[in-house]
Amino acid sequence: MAAPFSWIKPEPHGIYVEPADCWVDPSRAVGQALVTHGHADHARGGHGQTVATPETLAIMDLRYNTRAGATPVEYGETIRLKGGVDATYIPAGHVLGSAQILLEHAGERVIVTGDYKRRADPTCPPFEVTACDIFITEATFGLPVFCHPPIKEEMTKLLDRLAAHPDRCVLVGAYALGKAQRVIAELRAAGHTQPIYLHGAMEKMCRLYEEHGVDLGELRLVMDYSKEDIRGHIVICPPSALNDRWSRRLPDPVTAMASGWMRVRQRARQRNVELPLVISDHADWGELTRTIEEVDAQENWITHGREDALLRWCQLHQRRARALALVGYEDEDD
Amino acid sequence: MEKFAALIDALVYTRSRNEKLRLIAEYLRATPDPDRGWALAALSDGLDFPAVKSSTIRNLLKDRVDPVLWTLSRDFVGDTAETASLLWPAPDTPPAPPSVSEAVEILNAMNRKTVVTELPKLLDRLDSSGRYALLKFATGGMRIGVSSRLAKTAFAQAFEVSVDDVEEYWHGLTPPYAELFAWAAEGDAPPDIENLPTFRPFMLAHPLEEAVVDLADYAAEWKWDGIRVQLVRAGGETRLFSRSGDDISATFPEFLGILPMNAVVDGELLVRGNTQGGEAGGAASFNALQQRLGRKTVSNKMLKDYPAFIRLYDVLLLEGEDMRPRPWTERRGQLEALASRLPDSHFDISSVVEATDFKHLSRIREGSRDDAIEGLMLKRRDSPYIAGRRVGYWYKWKRDPLLVDCVLMYAQRGSGKRSSFFSDYTFGCWDGDPDQGADLLPVGKAYSGFTDEELKKLDRHVRSNTVNRFGPVRETDKSLVFEVAFDSVHESKRHKSGLAMRFPRIHRIRWDKPPHEADRIEALRALIAG
To answer: Which domain does B296 fall in, by range?
Structure first.
């Protein structure tokens, strides 16, 4: 009999599931890939076969035209892979379509979370705690300084600033997949019914969200309107456009950014942000540690982020843990 | 404290200088005395509460969070006060923030023992922003992109007074600057500093880039390599100030009581020797002066082995008369007359470098390399003595830097704007032939000389080429070559290589150059001055 868990191998370019000869979130093109969600550092193009939720496949198709070789799996559905491996996709609460992948083989259960959060998000179903033997968790915000405030507080900050500057506009930098749509949906939930203006790069993803039943209210493209029209409104753009020439067409924008990194003042200053909005689609320190406790796996493997600190926490709380040296995952603009 | 904390947060996130000025001015107008005076002190020179040190905060936090998690957090955030404000366990009681002056009173009353119980009580009364502002305030420098000059300019703008006047009075006053506010805000008489031995702001020089100047309009002097000082006698007291206005009288007691008249003079502090300018130059290298710097008490042996003197550059005040509005030529005449009345043991005068024209001067400057002199100063003959750096009056014309190719060995994260970026680099040269198994020995450290774009690439290089971690220090795989520029190199016990550079900075990043082609220690040693 093989050694316990010898069938699952963390390699630099992803997690390899040996009996099935497939990879989870590989950072280079492979024969068969199981993809947790649509962010570029997890979902790359060029795989022979891609197994993911229908929403994630739609996002990947929008980005890489990956219709060929796509195998959709609904939340809660289990598919049988080669070599007697079962894969079940479970909501991760990160972005539309995001899933944890439960892998079962020879009576052993391993979960790969991809990215996740525990807060409510109107654009995707919540994270489900699922029992397993090995829990492979992300650690993007794995430092005790990260504590994301309730999103309602951040919405109030944003709307107050908008009201204080009726002659200007508030330009919010937000990651084009997930963050932007969540911010819009939360603004709607906070009673903001005004049209929201979009950078051209956000349009398709917002439409995709709408097609999947997420109501975003009236959206307008900046390019179709004049400076005058945009005065007193909220504009959403990718973080890279915040300090770009593109923003010159806007009426004296207040520069805001929606990201978990905004918790640290110097990070906000590095991005020239005037209004930091601490909004993240990742688990903060409290959520990461609570999740490890609730899942209560025999062993925790920590992928990308501040793995040192989470490893230390596991050690302090007598939980077995190890850090994986995966390459290619980045601190996205979350 | 809430309003002050809100001001600090607003300043942190404001890019525009005008907006910063407006925010500070508005605060100064709206806030009563003495709160606004303490705030102004915090924003300009910083306040000093001896009981509260960065290490105090660190220790308080290490009692409350795991020390390893604290260190990792501090390393990521890049700022002790901010890390502490984020990690401080919030109490169950709602915040009851003190006023700024109440906080000052409480902080002032603390000593090394009571700080351990009193500072936590104060922190418990504040929210996260308040804790950040308080800790920044309590440990000195705010480091929020507001310079002392900007704070004073905002003060001047708030009350419509001249910033030069503010600078002039500033060093004669102490926080919370009651007389300054009474003068500017209430229209009282200006503060009287005539009989106080206070620091007057220095006149500074711009680098001479590509320009050529006419020697009919400009006089040249050597740029001596010591430290710029101001010696002041007034009201029966003598004080020596460094370039930043710090009182260094205790470190150089030989100048106390040496001026026979009331005066304020500007000069270079040097140690006797023959490195700079040979026998005629009469000054030792900067290294010799360094033996004297930073000491609280000075032994007789030190005074004898490293005798200091001031090489006079200028005179600001003389026997009750303000010389600063007069042209340089006239002040120079006064300075020469003054120098003849001072003891040769402690003073000489920086001589004017004679040249027929700019080309001739240029040749003289190039010849100065062996003399360990930094370069030349060019002073417009009709220039008044004006505080700060005013275009067109004074230029520094440094020698071209020395260059050497070094290999990146270690990197550390920066702080402030560069927090979380690996921006502090230690580099080394080979102690022999690298192809025969020679080692790299560290020769210096640099934090500057690269663009923000290059910093991002360097940060990525460090992260993906780390071979070892020592706390916050990353050891890299020694695959990257820097062309390092520096002003001079000296013997030093600080580095294993026995050498230390002055003003090293990254001149070019040689992504293309294989590390074994970097320079050897001998090449650097050959550049030792003097």
So the answer is: 203-398
